[in-house]
Amino acid sequence: MLSISRRILTATTTNHHAVARCMSSIPATMKAAVVRETGDAHALKLETDYPTPSLQPGQVIVKNQYAGINFIDTYHRKGLYPRDLPFIGGQEGGGIVAALSDEAKAQGIQLGDKVAYSVFGSYAQYTAVPASKLLPVPEGVGLDVATSCVVQGLTAHYLTTSAHANLIKEGEWCLIHGVGGGTCQWAAQMAKLRGFKVIGTCSRGKSDIAKTLGCDELIVLDEVEGASYEDYESVDIVARVMEVTDGKGCKAVIDGIGKSTVDISINSLAHRGIFISFGNASGAVPAFPVLRLIGKSAYVTRPKLLDYTVDRAELVSRADEIFGWLKEGKLNVSVDRCFPLEEAAEGHLYLEAGKSKGKVLYRID
Predict the structure, then answer these.
(1) How far apart, in whole angstroms, are the C-alpha atoms of residue 127 and residue 52?
(2) What pTM does this model have?
């Protein structure tokens, strides 16, 4: 397990008064990208005088250097996944511990520790984070890469290790859609580390990235102008999957595309295979009768990250393995672009237009 007591900067003292002085150095207001009314990307607006969070028992205040931009953030912004208004966008950040509670100190956390985390409100200069949610960033892993790991990396980890419920074994085939993008770049590599044979789909414009991931077979698709997903009708994917797998199909399909790929995913399954639907890039998966699964006695699941990081032990265990792979050079993490927080709307537009070839971040000054 990663040691949460590792220190990047040495605090001069750790008594209560030092913590109080640290809190007093944090301004009362801050920059934050805020949604006051749900809508398109321009509903996300930078505010320069948003109240800085106060420190509560069991928390730390992180001074953010990066915030990750994820598709789930766009679902919150649009109102697809409702949240109370107003809210600060984001749920993935990385930075330095700027203040900490007595409870956090008791866990060995120090001022100046370099950390990453996933809680709501990361599109801001400061975020209040429960100490139990902190991931200490080891030496040799940059904060930009560590921030990229928290949602996309952990999501890819549970998709390839747990969500398939062990219905796929080493040497069996796994279909992963959209391997040219963020989360599934991680997933393709992790699936290979698990010993699965991987078929990946990607757009022509992202095939250069996808070819570096080690997929056993890559299905390259035409692009959809201005969309975050490929033209899944430009190639007969099911026919190609069956050809590659000698007619057996895939024991697991990892699908973050949604509406455009649900039929492809189900029809690409092997007998007693599992359809793992985890995203809605092309729109939500429409309702379908469970009887559709009878032909192959197939399974379907719609998982979420919170249910696969249910306690600190599970969270840190997953992060520990990911950071270990990063340090060993077994994972290639592509940080595609870093927007200043002042360009909050542009970051969402870039992601939703399907332009990213890896992780998209905000840089927070």
Answers:
(1) 8
(2) 0.83
